[in-house]
Specification:
single chain; 3 helices
């Protein structure tokens, strides 16, 4: 659910993906667990939601996985 109409917006992938983008802008090129730890510092996010956000950012060509590390696309 990117933009669901039946739940609170703070539970959406679109909203939570913004926190991943924020962390990647500050500290680009992190592995998955490093990124999750950094995101958890600013937003209490479950790991399943986190992985769905990574999937969405990858499919939207916003983030990429290179050598086991996640970074923003240029």
């Amino acid at each position: 659910m990117l933009l669901p109409d039946n739940i609170r917006p703070e539970n959406s992938i679109y909203y939570n993906g913004a926190f991943l983008i924020q962390v990647l802008k500050e500290k680009n090129n992190l592995d998955m667990l490093e990124l999750y730890q950094e995101v958890k510092k600013i937003k209490n996010m479950t790991f399943p939601i986190f992985t769905l956000c990574i999937d969405w950012l990858y499919l939207a060509n916003i983030a990429e996985l290179s050598n086991g590390r996640i970074k923003l696309c240029s």
